[in-house]
Amino acid sequence: MITPSIKAPPLGTAIKPKVSGEDWIMRVVLIGIALYLLITMVFPLYAILSKSFQTDKGVFIGLDNYIKFFSTPALFWSIQNSFFVTIITCLIVVPVAFTFAYALTRSCMPFKSLFKGIALIPILMPSLLPAIALVYLFGAQGLIKGALLGHDLYGPIGIIIGESIYVFPHVLTIMLIAMSTADARLYEAAQVLGAGKIKTFFTVTLPGVRYGLVSAFFVCFTLVITDFGVPKVLGGKFNMLATDIYKQVVGRLDFEMGAVVGMVLLIPAVFAFFADRIAQRRQVALLSSRAVPYEPKPTPAFDMAMLTFCIVIGAIILAVLGTACFASFAKFWPYNLSFSLNHYDFDLMDGGSWDSFFNTLELAAWTAVIGTAAVFSGAYLVEKTKGFETGRGIMQFLCMIPMAVPGLVLGLAYIFFFNNPGNPFGILYHTMPILVICTITHFYTVAHLTAVTALKQMDPEFEAVSSSLKVPFYRTFFRVTVPVCLPAILDISMYLFVNAMTTVSAVVFLYSPDTALASVAMLNMDDAGDTAPAAAMGMLIVGTAAGVRLVHTILSRGLLRRTQAWRYR
Amino acid sequence: MKFAKTFALLAGGLALALSHTTSATAKTDLLVYTAVEADELKKFKKAFEADYPDVNIKWVRDSTGIITSKLLAEKENPKADIVWGVAATSLLLLSKYNYFQGYAPKGVEKLEKKYYDTKNNPPLWVGQRAWIASVCYNTVEAGKHNLPLPTSWADLTKGVYKGHVIMPNPNSSGTGFLDVSSWIQMQGEENAWKYMDALHENIARYTHSGSKPCKLAAKGEIPIGVSFAYRGAKSKNAGAPLEVVAPSEGVGWDLEAFGIVRNTKNLKAARALADWSVTEKANRIYNEEYAVVAMPGIAKPVKNFPPGIEAKMIQNNFQWAANNRIRVLDEWRKRYDGKSEPKK
């Protein structure tokens, strides 16, 4: 079966590639992963979608809930607010992250790994933490409360600052992967043809990362519009869609209207999907098998400018982290700033406990291991399966949806779906596995995009060559693809681990007494007004994630040295 | 057929025997959904399990809003054995979905009549203690802005307080709804909305949670927070520069209450907790933090609670509150949420 037919096709008939045995294996695995996404995402979403067309008694009422939504100004104005905040945030963050990534990959400035480390710190924070830090910086009792020139922190300004810090490392990660592989031959050619620095930038660098830029923008867009942590803390009177869902569901117990707002929030996902498809069609493989890796040459003035830029950004991030840290140890802000560990005594706080912290570690470990395997295999199969356009298209679409699904909607959808008495998967309800499944699904898209971006930079010739040498695809996968993409794979596992530690919204409806989580505890403590203990729990999450990341870096360094040596001359 | 029947009987008997032996040797896990503050839960668990050593309480603790929506979301297939220490208004709402089974705990008749369900016999829910609206006033921050101590709800609408008051959003906070509901019950709808129109002019922002305004006041983020008495007393005891005020017109309140879930598999243990919860011992523990408890004549004053607050509690009609909740919240949202931020 595996031996391809060597008979030449008869003359006069169109050449139709034969579907070989190994193609079938790939398709079956692909369908398996698609089924997983169907059960853990599409079916629950269908459950919540049907809720949006029903009354609370389960009677179908067509569009009535939607009509109510669009005739309630308090609700539909939130659309405008959400878009406003999101677009401003992305217009700030994408250029900043691009410049930062450019400094790290295309300049010879010193301390690159230090700045990369600092820039990625916010990825280790639940989005509540930068928001809480901003309260301690710019709030009524803030350290530098004059800095907003009398503008109110609780509103769009605060949300945009908070979201920018929260989303920056996510965007940076995508930019770095897009920029980490460049073909030196193109730069040499540009130099030989007499192109200046600026011309080279616009004709070689920018086109090369165009796909990365587009995908960074959409990741930023959907992360911000669906984030709930920052507006929850800093929203004030400024309504946004994500906090509206919370208000509908938690405050008014109006699940149907919560479902409607969730559906309204899904529209950007469809938009993002089509934009992504268009950008993808124009993408050309950057790293052909003949590519020569690019290495920057020192240019003092440019390197100094880049260093200054990185110092400013790094200082902002460290200030946010430092403030949260300081507040978590201050006895009673602002009246008694003496050192105290009281806020770390979580067992005495509303919604907090030390058990929740250990549960979070368990969740993060499972999510990283299972999630990375599933996401990377899925991305590989979407990219490399021959033919089977429909299946791959559906899979690609399935992979894009999770990012646009606000955590609260996913969590609620899981209750409706998994707690249905007739559902055989109901045994998962209230267990650690459902938290793992929910978290993998919730963070599937960015991990998938990271994998796809890395895979796209691999020339398809690798597969063509292996296939013509009759090497089975799985051997190419393990011997070539995985080692070449190892940096991306390690990034994915860290991304999943860290997000499992920091996620709040999706799991808030799914935890049971045995599986309470640290990030949920943080939300509940802040909600109850225990801001300092919430900051303390946040610091604990950041500290742990940073520690794990450090161990991860040390362990993987040896591995990367072996597998990535080909990148350096 | 006959064989199958015998087999089923045998299996059933065996299962019954097994369950008896396990309950004799192992503890029963009782899943209790609650909104009681975390620092008190350990105390309750220890005291109850001392009296009933074969029961092991497992708490699912969240704020009133979240725990109620969790319960509602699970209404087709409830997980909890007993809902305990959750707002009576929430229990009334849940009972519309046939959430609870009636049970009269031993000694329930000793409780104040208005604090448990007397419409149903046996009662579907039984109150434990009252949580009462109050205003938290930060003396240090108020001093900076020259704000006098407010003594009534009407005071809060005075121009001097503009931008210095925070209250919970009734759409997301049980305490917020309790305030709005009490204003309507005291003044009638028309006057209450007029009052809230004026109050809205002074509100800096609305919070999601009911305890947050007081904690924000305690930290000096805002001089005045509309919250509830327990929270104020607690923050003041912790050293915050607060005055806790029970406004003179009267204060809204709700009960922390319990109800046994209809499909519990641990009925015996759930009833044990219900029985224990109406004892004098339990009521004395309620009283350690709350000034008003369901059993009359035993409450001692709680440190830093506004004095005489029990006399200021309004005649609260829970049924009215539960029935009119959505209508009132819709009206509130139309008036104050929609125009919350000027258009850019």
Note down, in words, how this protein is organized:
- The complex is a heterodimer of chains A (569) and B (344).
- Chain A has 569 residues and is mainly alpha-helical.
- Chain A has one domain: MetI-like (MetI-like fold, Orthogonal Bundle).
- Chain A is built from 22 helices and 2 strands.
- In chain A, strand 1 and strand 2 form a beta hairpin.
- In chain A, helix 14 (389-404) crosses helix 17 (444-456).
- The two termini of chain A are 42 Å apart.
- Chain B folds into 2 domains: 2-130 and 254-306, Periplasmic binding protein-like II (D-Maltodextrin-Binding Protein, domain 2); 132-253 and 314-337, 3-Layer(aba) Sandwich (D-Maltodextrin-Binding Protein, domain 2).
- Chain B is built from 13 helices and 10 strands.
- In chain B, strands 1, 2, 3, 4, 5, 6, 7, 8, 9 and 10 form a 10-stranded mixed beta sheet that branches.
- In chain B, helix 4 (88-95) packs across helix 13 and helix 6 crosses helix 7.
- The longest helix of chain B is centred in the first third of the chain and has 24 residues, at 2-25.
- Chain B is globular and about 60 Å long.
- The interface between A and B is large, with 60 and 62 residues.
Shape of chain B: globular
Strand content of chain A: under 5%
Q: Strand count, sense and closure of the main sheet of chain B?
A: 10 strands, mixed
Assign the CATH architecture of the largest domain in chain B. 3-Layer(aba) Sandwich
CATH class of the largest domain in chain B: Alpha Beta
| Low-pLDDT residue intervals, each spanning 5 or more residues of chain A | 1-10
Gap between N and C termini of chain A, in Å?
42 Å
Task: Report on the biggest sheet of chain A.
Answer: 2 strands, antiparallel
CATH class of chain A: Mainly Alpha
Biggest interface in this structure? A-B, 60 and 62 residues
Estimate the mean pLDDT confidence of chain A.
Answer: 84
Write the element-wise H/E pattern of chain A from the N-terminal end onward: HHHHHHHHHHHHEEHHHHHHHHHH
Assigned CATH superfamily of chain A: MetI-like
The tally of domains of chain B stands at: 2
Question: What does the oligomeric state look like here?
Answer: heterodimer
